[in-house]
Amino acid sequence: MASHPLDRRFNSRLFLGGAVLAATGSVLVSVGLGLGSAALLDAARRWQRGTEMSPAQLARHAIGVAQVATNAGAQAWQAPMPNGRRRVAAGDGHAAPVS
Questions:
Q1: What's the number of CA atoms in the CB half-sphere (13 Å) around residue 76?
Q2: What are phi and psi of 93, to 5 degrees?
Q3: Exposure of 76 by Cβ count < 10 A (0-12 exposed, 13-18 middle, 19+ buried)?
């Protein structure tokens, strides 16, 4: 009785075992991500309650802080450097003083 050539090269039991392990791992990862997300959401809610501010107030405050930081950075960038030097962008993305 001749067997099919693919039967000799393909171990279906090994393949099935790998598929079962991959599926089991996927379920475990999904459960872990769900539990971790629930813990993070709970911590964020507790932190928000501790601030005595509504979420909208927190968002306005964060936007205000970001605007102040942006303006301070822009003003610092436009300010002249000592010794009359000027700033130019260097090749690595960092500003380098030029004489």
A1: 7
A2: 90, -5
A3: exposed
What span, in angstroms and rounded, lies between the C-alpha atoms of 23 and 61? Answer: 45
Q: Concatenate the DSSP letters of all residues of the chain into one string.
A: -PPPHHHHH--HHHHHHHHHHHHHHHHHHHHHHHHHHHHHHHHHHHHHHHTTS-HHHHHHHHHHHHHHHHHHHHHHHHSPPGGG-EEEE-TTSSEEEE-
Q: What are phi and psi of 61, to 5 degrees?
A: -65, -45
Query: Is this model's pTM higher than 0.90 or not?
Result: no
Contacts of 98 (CB under 8 A, 6+ apart): 85, 86, 87, 88
pLDDT in tens, 4-57: 665 567 788 999 999 999 999 999 999 999 999 999 999 999 988 898 888 899
**Mean model confidence pLDDT for the chain:** 83
Length of the chain: 99
